[in-house]
Amino acid sequence: MPHTRQNIRDNVVTVCTSLTTTAARVYRSRVYPLAHAKLPGLCIYSQNEDSLPGTMTATRFLERTVEIVIEAFVRGTANYDNTLDTIASEIEVAMSASTTRGGYAKDSYLTRTEFEFSDEGDQPIAMARLVYTVEYRTAENNATTAV
Known about the structure:
With about 150 residues, the chain is of the alpha+beta class. The protein is built from two helices and six strands.
């Protein structure tokens, strides 16, 4: 069975697939750069996770907080900041429809949005990074089941 974190990430990929601007150009990694044909597109991955014991019983529960990152990439010579704002709006609406990430999380919310711009190449590349905090709970000895 997959780690609960993977189930949460899979839910975010599902929720963000078929948005108006990025359509099915949604990728589960940030390891490889997106080719021009895959833009505008999204990369979704988990970044940092903190855990704290939630109980002091024999089988402890861990209160977990993971950052899920959604990076939106666009390419163009004009209006790329407007396109990023449109994509961010579409993501925010889609992510707010269910804050429990398919029942795997206690809560999820947007905590930060960052922007980067690069003028390398034939057309500028612009990126918006939306960071969502997702809170969930598992038993210390079973990370595959949310409790």
